[in-house]
């Protein structure tokens, strides 16, 4: 595992623990919904400074140092076309793969990426996200598409 910010690492473990607890208390569907709702304000706080006054490509490019600080290797590709502001976020390293198994998840996707992508759509009504490929599914990178 790459070097991580210690606060991020602690919050990451807490997120997995909390999601596991929600599943046990409420079941998988209600746990997912609760996690998405909890993630919406976090997405607003995190992403607004990057994308409020910029194209998605510019904003995501500005976010690279933040993501590097938490152990990710991120590239951004502007795919804006036909009046859509759009970007591919390419993650070449997933810091979550090993941690997920510690909490009984076969992949980290349902706890991290699925929740974050769904929360982005609720946090920013004009934006939607899609997961195009996942390292946890055997792909060599994780690729996310966002557009507005």
In short:
The protein is 51% helix and 16% strand.
Describe this structure in words.
The protein is an alpha+beta fold. It has a single domain (about 5-145), classed as 2-Layer Sandwich (Muramoyl-pentapeptide Carboxypeptidase, domain 2). Helices cover about 50% and strands about 15% of the residues. It has helices at about 5-25, 30-50, 55-70, 95-100, 115-125, and strands at about 75-80, 85-90, 130-135, 140-145. A four-stranded antiparallel beta sheet has the order 1-2-4-3, with helices on one face. α2 packs across α5. The longest helix is centred in the N-terminal third of the chain and has 24 residues, at about 30-50. The chain is globular and about 45 Å long. The relative contact order is 0.17. The mean pLDDT is about 90. It comes from Prosthecochloris aestuarii (strain DSM 271 / SK 413). Pfam families: ATC_hydrolase. This is Transcriptional regulator.
């Amino acid at each position: 595992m790459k070097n991580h910010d210690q606060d991020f690492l602690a919050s990451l473990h807490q997120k997995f623990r909390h999601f596991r607890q929600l599943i046990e208390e409420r079941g998988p569907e209600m746990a997912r919904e609760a996690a998405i709702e909890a993630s919406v304000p976090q997405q607003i706080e995190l992403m607004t400074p990057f994308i409020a006054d910029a194209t998605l490509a510019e904003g995501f490019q500005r976010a690279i140092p933040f993501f590097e600080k938490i152990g990710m290797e991120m590239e951004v590709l502007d795919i804006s076309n036909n009046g859509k502001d759009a970007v591919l976020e390419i993650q070449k390293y997933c810091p979550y793969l090993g941690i997920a198994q510690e909490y009984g998840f076969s992949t980290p996707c349902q706890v991290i990426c699925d929740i974050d992508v769904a929360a982005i759509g609720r946090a920013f009504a004009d934006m939607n996200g899609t997961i195009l490929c996942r390292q946890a599914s055997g792909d060599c990178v994780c690729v996310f598409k966002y557009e507005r």
